[in-house]
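Researcher: Let's try something more involved. This one mixes different molecule types, so please make sure each is placed in the same coordinate frame as the others.
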Amino acid sequence: MAADEELRKSYADEVWSPDSQRDRSILYELVSKDFKLKYRRSALGVAWSVLNPLLMMSVMAAVFSHMMRFSSDAIPNYPLYIILGNITFSLMSEATSSGMGSIINAASLLKKVRVNRWVFPVEKVLFAVINFALSLLAVAIVMIVFRIAPTWHVIMLPLFLVYITVFCVGLSLFLATASVFFRDVMHLWGVFLTAWTYATPLFYPQEILPEWMLKLETFNPMYHYVNYIRNLLLYQVTPSLKLNLACAGFAVLSLLVGWVVFRRNERKFILFI
Amino acid sequence: MAETEPRNQGDMSTRSWWIDAELTRDVIKDTEFTRLDVTPTLINPSKLKYVYRYENSDGTLQGETPTQNDPVFLFIPPDAGTYTITAVATAVDGEEDYASVTLRVESSEPFTRPALPDDDAPTIIKVDDVSMVFNIASERFNSLKEYFIAMLSHELRFKEFRALDHISFEVKRGEAFGLVGTNGSGKSTMLKIIAGVLDATEGSCQVVGSIAPLIELGAGFDAELTAAENIYLNGALLGYKREFIEEHFDDIVEFAELEGFMDMPLKNYSSGMVARIAFAIATVAEPDVLIVDETLSVGDFLFQKKCQRRIKQLVENDNVTVLLVSHSIDLVEHLCDRVCWIEKGEMRMLGPTEEVCNAYKSLEK
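Model: All components are placed in one shared frame. Result:
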């Protein structure tokens, strides 16, 4: 009987992933699925992840440097200024918009197989982070073209990635939960993102903002994240302790709220999807 | 038994041609098929047209093909028994000849109940006083506006609906357990709770080990991915190790009989092909608990038989606990050791198969 039990156990070990590894392999398979699907049947394939931010930056640089005539003292290099803001913001917007619908899209699966539900929003964030990492190549190209040598500050990039990933995970968990119960959230979020784009100094210098608006920016997480990466690569200064605290604070706050809201409601998902 | 009896019409000497028919195998199981090859003695046989018909031992016609050019006939037996297959060949000038063969189709063993588990076998599924309550009203709000209006006008009262009311049972390792009940009785809700996708409102449900749910096959597949990619994705979602799938990839493909189609996106597959792959992945390993839903009718006739064989293998395995959910009683009677009858969310009966099934059947009268 004991031998039987042992045989059974060794068979199970061979076949089934232990719980801890299971989530990891699901995440891996889902990310690789998204990656394959994004570039399937496009001639340039993954190169688009680099090209896209470059082209976007060129358009914006062409339009806004003529329309707005910014003083060049505030911004050492306008194209680099734009591309850093853009890729950071689109990391957040991609992660949250796709994370938001991830639970609803996995409905057929969640009704059938027991899977940890959080893997779906988290996977979408991870996929956005990978895309972000690829668009850093575009940043490198811009820096080479404008002959801007990177400084040691580059080594702080991983810390920045941790901040913004955690922030996006929290936000996605919250939005995924909200959209399960109220589909309106999905429509509203697009509008909200547009407003957020303009409220964050992505293509204009923060100096043109009125005093009161600048004060409000303290409560805009994206303002801090964009500032952080610009500090590292554009201004090439060490981000202040205050900035670090702001970035970490928003990340932790977002994760806390998102996680609590998600965990308290995930049992009810199946009734609404 | 391979009697090829060319029964040529008329005088042999006046005829310019005739046909012979030969079976690849003349004794087959009802889960298999056999091939009939027709050989005409003619210089240009391509001008012949063929019709195939088969009769059972009473001489009743069971099936007939339309006129075709193919001198090959794939015989898929409708049931066990002795059959006579006749091939009729017609030339352009109207001259015809026929040849008959007989074959025997043996019935494969029907489902048999596994041996009852020992008394000291460990409990695998433990359903303890489970109740499931749905708030009907709360599920109606799909938008914030509706919700707030309802909240402001104090209409947020919930009508309670008890889908399950204090259900308790235990299933031991190796047992085949049936859940019966009419439509809407709460079977599916119970199943979802056991599968772990739905949490009970009251009470608890514990399952030891892995679950292979053979319900709604193919959920979690992505139509854009190729079949091979879907196997890995679905495997991970079901909890298999990647190495295990790599090792058994060929088994899955072979079982699904889809060699050569693995690099095709799933959207180009027919629904039957998708179901074949899904079934093959779900049953490639021996799970601790196998959940079999009544909706399991996958692919064509032959593949269905194959699925049934595989399920039978798993049922007969002492390590696998089988949970069969059905509103049709026949399969449950064949397969299960014990049955739980749920009606309108309440447990009507729990006990040995005969007892419960007889009571359930008396409902029809």
